[in-house]
Amino acid sequence: MDSDALIDWYRETARDLPWRRPGVTAWQILMSEIMLQQTPVVRVEPIWREWVARWPVPSAMAAAPQGEVLRAWGKLGYPRRALRLHECARVLAEVHGDEVPTDVDVLLSLPGIGAYTARAVACFAYGQRVPVVDTNVRRVVARAVHGRAEAGNPANRDLTETEALLPARVDRAAVMSAALMELGALICTARTPDCERCPLPRCAWISAGRPASDVVRRVQKYEGTDRQARGRLLDVLRDASGPVERVRLDLAWTRDPGQRDRALDSLLVDGLIEQTPDGLFALAGEGS
């Protein structure tokens, strides 16, 4: 892969995202990476800006109640990420001097921080030469290097293959990691790749005649799912000023009482909500 061409393209055309700007801290980058998981940039940006102003350092978030963080999470989806980030903030404040560690292994030990996020923070916050592999990067490598339309299932070799593409110079490697992600997000997309605008002079997939994918995609629906039911119940508690009676939750999802009960139980198990001794329901930390 031509790293020079890709890096030049990125430096000329990269989106002006707020978490890419000078002066953004590792904590603020970590927050952006957690929010961006399975969530479009357009939905993340306004929430991220609010959180940066509200909780500029980990200790500020750690001091906030869990329910306040969940309420501020709003409609980003997968709200367990908010709870894990709150827990991570507490550990950073208590164990790491209110700073985000630079070492990947130490980052991996933090609550809610997985392989992708740890390397993304090390790379984008600290400029380290580490492979940062998400769905977009895997797709670009599958096409440009291996001539496949899709990457298939994640594998351990993804990190090794991506690291081999990075320039030896640390500063250029960090830019290359960002460029790979940008290429997959904007040009080498899953459904409609814009090959005419691709900055890479050579692509194995194009050379092979753009063979069709043999990966069967499963379309994830949302309407009528347990996720939607959970979201409706959480909406009631987010909008409430205190614990609410069960009937308020029952009215939020009437189409399937069994599904509603299942959603409510899962929210309790996940620690997103809690039940008071007198049978009321509230966001985590707001039941007293």
Automatic annotation (TrEMBL):
Q: Which residues form a coiled coil?
A: none
Keywords in alphabetical order: 4Fe-4S, DNA damage, DNA repair, Glycosidase, Hydrolase, Iron, Iron-sulfur, Metal-binding
Question: Which InterPro entries does the UniProt record give?
Answer: DNA_glycosylase, HhH-GPD_domain, HhH_base_excis_C, HhH_motif, MIG/MutY
Where is each HhH-GPD domain found? 35-186
Q: Tell me its cofactors.
A: [4Fe-4S] cluster
Q: What EC designation does it have?
A: 3.2.2.31
Q: Name one Pfam family in it.
A: HHH
Record GO biological process: base-excision repair; mismatch repair
Name the family. Belongs to the Nth/MutY family.
Q: What is this protein called?
A: Adenine DNA glycosylase
Give the SMART domains listed for this entry: ENDO3c
User: What's the catalysed reaction?
Assistant: Hydrolyzes free adenine bases from 7,8-dihydro-8-oxoguanine:adenine mismatched double-stranded DNA, leaving an apurinic site
Record-level Gene Ontology MF annotations: 4 iron, 4 sulfur cluster binding; 8-oxo-7,8-dihydroguanine DNA N-glycosylase activity; adenine/guanine mispair binding; metal ion binding; oxidized purine DNA binding; purine-specific mismatch base pair DNA N-glycosylase activity
Top EC class of this enzyme: hydrolase
